[in-house]
């Protein structure tokens, strides 16, 4: 029922803007975009964003975020990243929320290089990456099989005095190292968590699997 109401809201807002004399405003469009986000109507969201300049309105960061979220939710990460590109072209000031949303789209689309570049760009501005930012880019690198990058990110998190999320940063690095055949590194990371008194998800299973693979590799 909630999605039906959200679709109806989005359609009503669009109808009001196109068929009545209601004065268009960014607030009204953002309301419609929010309804699209709830209902997953990514085509309608993109149409509304395209229409805003036609009625002499400039989409805000909130407008682009709502559009990007509904695209990502619908599995259209390419469209989401394209919207972030348009937002950058509009010279809108990025913030942690918009950067985190863009990182999420990169992760969903397997764009680990773009995710890394975005984190570097964040450090070059006043928008410093937080633990969530690093969690997302680490996950993107893990999914891309980039074990070296996950290790580098883990070291970077410690260097900038952020507290690593054990279940995300360490587990992702261990998983990436294991998938890349780097069992010694995986075992070392498990040992690091134990010495630091950190708790991994299913540490015994992870360690056993790594040890078996490392032993198997050494016999070949």
TrEMBL record:
Q: Where are the PPR repeats?
A: 25-59, 130-164
Leader sequence range is: none
Pfam families recorded for this chain?
A: PPR_3 (PF13812)
Q: Would you say which domain of life the source belongs to?
A: Eukaryota
| Key words, A-Z | Repeat
Extract the PANTHER family matched here: OS03G0856100 PROTEIN, OS12G0638900 PROTEIN
Protein name, per record: Pentatricopeptide repeat-containing protein, chloroplastic
Q: Which organism is it from?
A: Prorocentrum cordatum
Identify the taxonomic lineage of the organism of origin.
Eukaryota, Sar, Alveolata, Dinophyceae, Prorocentrales
């Amino acid at each position: 029922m909630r999605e039906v109401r959200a679709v109806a809201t989005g359609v009503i807002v669009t109808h009001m803007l196109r068929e009545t004399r209601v004065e268009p405003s960014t607030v009204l469009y953002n309301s419609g975009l929010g309804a699209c986000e709830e209902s997953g109507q990514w085509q309608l969201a993109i149409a509304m964003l395209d229409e805003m300049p036609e009625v002499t309105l400039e989409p805000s960061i909130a407008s682009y975020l709502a559009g990007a979220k509904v695209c990502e939710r619908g599995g259209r990460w390419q469209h989401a990243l394209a919207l972030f590109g348009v937002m950058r072209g509009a010279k809108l000031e990025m913030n942690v929320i918009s950067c985190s949303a863009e990182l999420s789209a990169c992760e969903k689309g397997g764009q680990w290089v773009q995710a890394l570049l975005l984190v570097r760009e964040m450090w070059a501005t006043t928008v410093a990456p937080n633990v969530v930012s690093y969690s997302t880019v680490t996950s993107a690198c893990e999914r891309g099989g980039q074990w070296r990058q996950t290790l580098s990110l883990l070291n970077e998190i410690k260097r900038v005095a952020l507290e690593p999320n054990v279940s995300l940063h360490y587990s992702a690095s261990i998983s990436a190292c294991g998938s890349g055949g780097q069992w010694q590194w995986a075992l070392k990371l498990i040992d690091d968590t134990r010495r630091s008194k950190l708790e991994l998800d299913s540490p015994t299973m992870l360690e056993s699997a790594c040890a078996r693979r490392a032993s198997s590799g050494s016999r070949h």
